[in-house]
Amino acid sequence: MTGWFSLRQWLSLALLLGICSSGCTSWRQKMAVRDSESQDLVEQVRVATESGRQEQAAELLKQAVNSNPNNAAVRQQLSEFLITNGYSEEAMQQLKKTMVLTPDDPKPYIDLAYLLHEKKQYTDALKNLELGLKLDPTNIRALILKGELEELAELNPAAVETYHRVLQVDPYNIVSRLKLAALQIKQGEPNRATPILRPICHNTGATIDQRAEAQWLLGVAYGAEQRWSDSVASLELALKQRTDVSADDWYRVAYACLQANEMEKVYPAVTRALTLNPLHTETNRLSTYLTQQSNQFNIQQASMYTPLQRPGFIGQESSPIPLDTLRPPQGWEQAARLSISAGRVSTGAR
Questions:
Q1: d(C-alpha 151, C-alpha 55), whole Å
Q2: Which residues of the chain have pLDDT under 70?
Q3: What is the rounded CA–CA span in Å between residue 194 and residue 192?
Q4: pLDDT at 262
Q5: In this predicted structure, what is the pLDDT of residue 8?
Q6: Residue 325: DSSP 8-state
Q7: Among 59, 108, 99, which residue's Cα sits nearest to residue 80?
């Protein structure tokens, strides 16, 4: 009897194992079929995307996800497609589902943080970044966005530390160097910014826009140090490469030229600023100052460059504007308090 029961137990166990094995094999086969179908659909997405059929590509990706909802890789591809094509809400939904499937993957957290940043949901963006950085502490993309969010929150010391973390991973990261230099200028430490910026200006590995930005920031840093001639030279070099120049930028150039006593460059800069924004307050004050100078030669010289008009209401003269009351561009306020330089409109004959 004992032998009979042992035999029955072994037969039951063998039968059970056979059923499990068969079930597991069947499950694996089903999953393999689903994965194969998903990959076929993903390949069709690639072809449709390359052919410019974006709507068809989106539908195919959705089919791929529906055919295998637990395939995190396909969901990730769908979210990237949605991000690229501007479907941010749908992308956020897919990223959240991907996080559940692959909680140890930092990419969905970081991608979601960027989308939240675009929607100005900065607190939630920072939370997701922190989660992503716990999984990948040296992720440069995440660290740079973290620094930007810290700047927005005016946590400047934290942002400086974050940008330094980037440079520990990649010492030649140009984006982080530019952001760090701009932040140091903002904090009143231009002497720390100039050694960072000068190499970028001549770095052939940097883009044209990055070199132009470095050159412009260098001019701003020189102005903060009251090195006005150097500031003018650097700002002028940057303007040759920059495509987007504002009235504020031209006012900065005019102000630097005034401080450097390079008056022949002041008038064209004033003209450019007022052309972009005729109501620019400080440029109008500078224009008024120039037209109020006593020497008629300078007024005539000004009219060669810019259509300056006599200030005030018709039949009235406005009150004279002292040079030291002109408001400096942003970041140069401290330099102006320390010293209004030798920039003057000459009152003598040339």
A1: 38
A2: 1-46, 48-52, 54, 60-61, 64-65, 67-68, 293-323, 334-350
A3: 6
A4: 94
A5: 60
A6: G
A7: 108
As given in the structure block, the two tokens for residue 80 are 């990237």
Nearest CA among 171, 182, 172 for reference residue 148: 182
Q: What is the pLDDT of residue 81?
A: 80
Q: What is the pLDDT of residue 334?
A: 66
Cβ atoms of 68 and 74 closer than 8 Å = yes
Q: Cα–Cα distance between 294 and 69 in angstroms, integer?
A: 80
Residue identified by tokens 């450019």 is 272
Compute the C-alpha angle 247/249/254, nearest 5°: 90
Question: Nearest 5°: CA angle at 337, between 326 and 181?
Answer: 100
Cα–Cα distance between 220 and 138 in angstroms, integer?
Answer: 31
pLDDT of the residue at 275: 95
The predicted pLDDT at position 296 comes to: 47
Contact 234, 216 (CB under 8 A): yes
**What gap in Å lies between CA 255 and CA 343, rounded to an integer?**
9
Going by C-alpha positions, the residue among 196, 189, 139 that lies closest to residue 166 is 139
Residue whose tokens read 């994965």:
35
Specify whether the CB–CB gap between 289 and 326 falls below 8 A: yes
What is the pTM (predicted TM-score) of this model?
Answer: 0.72
Location of structure tokens 């090195």: 227
What's the Rg (C-alpha) of the chain?
32
How many beta carbons lie within 10 A of that of residue 21, not counting itself?
10
